[in-house]
Amino acid sequence: MNETITVKGFRQQRKNGSNMKLTSLPIRVLSALLDRKEILPSSLTEECLEQIRLSDPGLGAFLTVTEKEALSAAAEADRRCRAGIRLSPLDGIPYALKDNLATDKIRTTAGSRMLAEFIPCTDAEVVKRLKNAGAVLLGKCNLDEFGMGNSTRYSAFRATRNPIDPAFVPGGSSGGCAAAVGAGMAVFSIGSDTGGSVRQPAAFCGITGFKPTYGVIPRDGLIAFASSLDTVGILARTPEDCLSVLRVIAGPDACDMTSRPYLFESGEEPKLPRIALLSAEEEESDTDAVRQMTASAVRLLQDAGYPVRKTAVPNLRAALSAYYIISSAEASSNLARYDGIRFGVRAHGCHGIDALYDRSRAEGFGDEVKRRILLGTHVLSEGSRKCFYQSACATRETLRTAFSHIFETAELILCPTVPCTAFRMEESLSPAEAYQSDCHTVPASLCGLPAISIPCGIGPDGMPLALQLIAKEGSDAALCRYAANVLRLITEMPLSRKDCGE
Amino acid sequence: MHGILYFFRRHFAVSGAQTSRLFSTTAPRRKYPYSVPKGDRPPVGGVLYHPMNINIKELSRLAHLSLTEEEERRFSEELEGVLAFLVQTAATTPSDEGNPAVLSPVHEPREDISIPFPAPERILALAPDTAQGLIQVPAVLRDE
Fold it and tell me: How far, CA to CA in Å, does A117 sit from each of A92, A114, A121, A446, A471?
């Protein structure tokens, strides 16, 4: 892990002739090196583009690489760097963007045939903020169509592969973003998390994935999936990097009614936060490796002095169903806008407006999106609404109350990020089976809480395992700092293979 | 007339689905695909309708998706599998109306003002079919 690398260490390694990758350095160190003009933004960007040329044909992480724009943005950053007027700690740092965030004059597909030729007229708010901070956009990353899926195999264009072992999926829906950071093609990437779409791929690719409190990062320009759950998230190598990016992109935006002001330094934080270990029926679906990893990590934390106690949330299992009901219901309404009239695919040779709608949508959407639209339509229809949608909303409220009770006596909630390691590319799961692997990530989404996934050991199949930490609403920065400490602990005392189910 | 109604439904209703009933008179009442304790079963709204039944033709009409026969069969099978798994949620008795908002809003609503976009031709360029600076669509109103 690169947590301990310092500017000094980097100089030493360079002197020794080691060709250490710049992208493996923490943003804090890169920024310090840029400040001292020891490296230049263009060399950093070129290293990333070189890595993309090398790895991306095999991995398929990018849908669009904006090489020309990236190089000219880096050249401008070079000038600022030389003049000693860097705009922010992210000035000159190259990043990748999930293709459901709008970019002015750059194709934005959301992984769908429906938007295959869609070229937005404005930038998303996060893109504007990153541009103003001087960050360099490398390209747009692959995703499951409209963010619906957890393997990046539901993209209309291509499947993305896991950078640790290409025989495995990278997770999803921000699979392209996770693969890009995992393979050193970008320093960080911006994804979106509706039910775990940032945390789950980060877990599968062995990196850090951060989902903020609902509303902390503005969503103007994010192609909507489920509006009461959608958040913009950050994928990076470490929680510290996530915090560096969060500082630049968090804060209210007049164009997003759900955005909220964010205070970074919120009073004192205990050095050793109280941790509540979430134990529930959820564990049933965990593989042995995941269960052992969690137990070993808890032991490690206790040895380091963290007060850890078990806690249970009644009916946590219902969260998964509530998530799929609410998200599909909202998706069926949100995706009604793709009707072949103002933009997107329009079917040819249709008689009448209804046939045009029906056939354009049938041609433009993939199977998973159709399933969710049909499911959403079903759970909202009269007769089903009470049974499904309303009870899902009630479950969500119960869950929120239960979580706020936990936070009366603890600062952090701990659980695995995913019940298993990455699955193989060819492994086919029924929709209901695939949905169950989101069981650990959806509760934080339903409650709008900040959550972070950090790598924690390697499973028997050689694929990474991950822990999830959840904090209370608004404690985003504290969560990143706590996660950095926990990750440092895990890195210093790595879990043995025996600790991870071998 | 249909066009006007349709416009209304698309632009003012939350979802087309909510405006229509989903009675399925022909489909037989199905058993739960796996055992759910009796007390935990969702309330069933009458004999004609059962929330576990998928009426795929009606759903595809409401969702504006034309499906082939093969797709109809496949999707209803898959959706029944998904519903069987979702029915667990019904363990919570629904309150009058659950609150769909996750966190209370903190923003004051801003004024609803229109700001002209500097390059309307770029928006027009996204439309699949245009004529004389307008988006062209098939006839909505017809002589019956």
Answer: 29, 8, 13, 33, 40
pLDDT averaged per 10 residues in sequence order, chain B, 144 residues: 41 36 38 43 47 88 96 94 79 55 64 87 92 88 65
Answer for the pair A152, A169: CB distance below 8 angstroms, yes or no.
Answer: yes
Token duo for residue B141: 């109103």
pLDDT confidence of A416, banded at 50, 70, 90? very high
The mean pLDDT of A258-286, rounded to a whole number, is: 80
Chain A interface, mutation test: which of B89, B113, B117, B142, most A Cβ atoms within 10 Å?
A: B89
Closest Cα partner for A400 from A449, A453, A328?
A449
- Cβ separation of A386 and B89 shorter than 8 Å? no
Distance CA A135, CA A184 (A): 16
Residue A179: pLDDT over 80: yes
Distance to chain A for B129, nearest Cα, Å: 8
pTM of the model: 0.89
Most B-contacting residue of A121, A148, A216, A369 (CB-CB within 10 A), to test interface: A121
* Cis bond before residue A430 (omega within 30° of 0): no
The token pair at A119 is: 């070229």
| Phi/psi of residue A474, nearest 5 degrees | 90, -5
Q: Which residues on chain B are in Cβ contact (under 8 Å) with A476?
A: none
Is A373 in CB contact (< 8 Å) with chain B?
Answer: yes
Q: Which of A318, A359, A389 sits opposite B91 (nearest CB)?
A: A318
Residue type, A34: L
E strands, A322-424, in order: 412-416
What's the mean pLDDT when you consider all of chain A?
92
List strand residue ranges (DSSP E) for chain B, in order: 130-131, 134-135
Asked which of A107-121, A484-498, B112-126 is least confident by mean pLDDT, the reply is A484-498
Per-residue pLDDT band at A11 (split at 50, 70, 90): confident
Q: How far apart are CA A54 and CA A406, in angstroms?
A: 47
Is A21 among the catalytic positions? Answer: no
If you average pLDDT over residues A74-79, what whole number do you get? 97
A197 in active site: yes
**Would you state the pLDDT for residue B102?**
58
Tokens representing A217 are: 């990062």
Alpha-carbon distance of A227 to A110, in angstroms, equals 16
Question: CA-CA distances (angstroms) from residue A302 to A49, A291, A295, A429, B54?
Answer: 43, 17, 11, 37, 50
- Cβ neighbourhood burial of A348 (10 Å; 0-12, 13-18, 19+): exposed
Q: How many residues does chain A have?
A: 502
- Give the burial class of B93: count Cβ atoms within 10 A of its Cβ; 0-12 exposed, 13-18 middle, 19 or more buried: exposed
Minimal CA–CA distance to A28: which of A88, A108, A72, A115? A88
A446 in contact with B, Cβ within 8 Å:
yes
Mean pLDDT of all residues in A93-107: 97
Report yes or no for ipTM above 0.90.
no
Question: Predicted confidence band at A497 (pLDDT cuts at 50, 70, 90)?
Answer: low
Q: Which of A157, A165, A195, A185 is nearest to A174 (CA)?
A: A195
